[in-house]
Design a protein that fits this description.
176 residues, mainly beta
Length: 176
C-alpha cells in the first residue's frame, strides 16, 4: 500500500457498500445494506499505519422490503430513534486482518474483518482513489439485537449469525 498518499482519505459513499446477510426461517437468506455511510481512512507515511473509521446511519437500512425495513428500524432491532448510528473504529491492522471496535445499540465489541486492499487509480476526473473489501461475522445477540420468533416446525425466524460485507472506496486528500 506504499502507493497511498499519507493523510486523511474520505469515504466515497456512492462507491461503497455496507451489506449484511442473515438466515431467515432456516431456509433462505435475507440481505440488506445501509445506504447512508460515512467514513475516513488515515494513511501514515509510506502507506503504513492505516486506520479506518466508519459510521452507518441505522435509519438507512434497506432490504428491498419496506415492512421488514420498518421492523429493523423499530425497538425490536436497531431502534433508530435511540441509536441512530452504527460505528466501526479500527484499532490495528494485522496482515490481512483489520481489528477494531464495532458499536451497535451502544454495545461495543471487538471484531476482526478479513480485509484486502484492492488497489488504487486516478479516475477520468483526476481524483485518486483506493479500494478495500472486508468481511466478518457477528452474533447479533451480543449487540442487543435479540428479537426473534419461534417457528412452528422448530427453530427461529432470524438466525443469530450475521455476515457483514464491505466494499469501500476512498478518495485521496487534496493538496492544500
Amino acid at each position: 500500500m506504499s502507493d497511498l498518499t499519507p493523510g486523511t482519505w474520505t469515504l466515497d459513499a456512492s462507491h461503497t457498500s455496507a451489506s449484511f446477510t442473515v438466515r431467515h426461517a432456516g431456509i433462505s437468506k435475507a440481505r440488506g445494506q445501509f445506504t447512508d455511510v460515512q467514513g475516513t481512512l488515515v494513511v501514515g507515511e509510506g502507506g503504513e499505519n492505516l486506520s479506518f473509521e466508519t459510521t452507518l446511519m441505522t435509519s438507512s437500512v434497506n432490504t428491498s422490503n419496506s415492512d421488514r425495513d420498518n421492523h429493523l428500524r423499530s425497538g425490536d432491532f436497531f431502534d433508530t430513534e435511540n441509536f441512530p448510528e452504527i460505528t466501526f473504529v479500527s484499532t490495528e491492522v494485522k496482515g490481512e486482518t483489520l481489528v477494531g471496535d464495532l458499536t451497535i445499540r451502544d454495545v461495543t465489541k471487538p471484531v476482526e474483518l478479513d480485509f484486502a486492499y484492492e488497489g488504487s487509480a486516478t479516475d477520468p476526473f483526476g481524483t485518486y482513489r483506493a479500494g478495500f473489501t472486508g468481511a466478518t461475522k457477528i452474533s447479533r445477540k451480543e449487540f442487543g439485537l435479540t428479537w426473534n420468533a419461534a417457528l412452528e416446525a422448530g427453530g427461529v425466524l432470524v438466525a443469530d449469525e450475521v455476515k457483514i460485507s464491505i466494499e469501500a472506496e476512498f478518495t485521496a486528500p487534496t493538496a492544500a
